[in-house]
Amino acid sequence: MDDRYWDTIPMPTAAEKDAAVSQILDAGLPAQPGILRGLAETLQAVGIRSLFFGEADCLFLSALFLVLCLLPAAAAARQGPVGPALFLLSPALYAALHLLTAWKEVQSGTLEWRQTCRVSLRAMTALRMLVFGGVSVLVCVPVSLLLWHLAGGQVSFFWMAALSVSGVCLYGLLALYCLRLRGMAGLLTAPAVWTALGIVPLLWDRAARWLDRVPAVLFCLLAAAALTLYVMELRRFCRRCAEGGVTYALG
Predict the structure, then answer these.
(1) pLDDT at 108 over 50
(2) What pTM does this model have?
(3) Which position among 93, 109, 198, 238 has the lowest Cβ density within 10 Å, counted as fewest Cβ atoms?
(4) Phi, psi (deg, nearest 5) at residue 215
């Protein structure tokens, strides 16, 4: 056969090659579901009981930790401005649930067991984080009501509730970003940073007065912005390919 025959065969262009590769990939790899749909499918697969299997003691200790935190906050509400104490206390339940469940999974070996399951460990972790966050937001209402009553109604209840809810949302976002760190750093950075920030208004009167002058609407906007960023970061968290290590046990 004449060698010049091969020169007459039309070869695909670079754009045509890319289009063909994309078509093959689209046909072979199913599209990833949205974050809400993926989490809903995970919840349907594992069930709510399996999601929190063996975590009853963590739930009890977290509730006890919240009660212990309420004691100094109640004393602060009777003696002076309640805003700084409420700001520091607001994510206490979420932080306790976050840390205790992660620590127990690592210590008991259930982390390795969950990593061998067909269901994504990250999706299960994300589900628990959402549940813990939702419960913490709901708890903010009675906690704010209690401190408002102890403060004699001197501060608007709506302002206190907005401050408390925004604190939970901001801490949740901070904790989720800290999951990008490896090892114990990803576990302890968020509570350390939040404690350092929360102590400032307690020790510095000027910062406490500035916090008291922040309007409730601004706290609501901060909560909405933090919640939006939280969902975006949660989507990235669930789509990361690598798994393993202490940070992936966080819930």
Answers:
(1) yes
(2) 0.77
(3) 109
(4) -70, 155
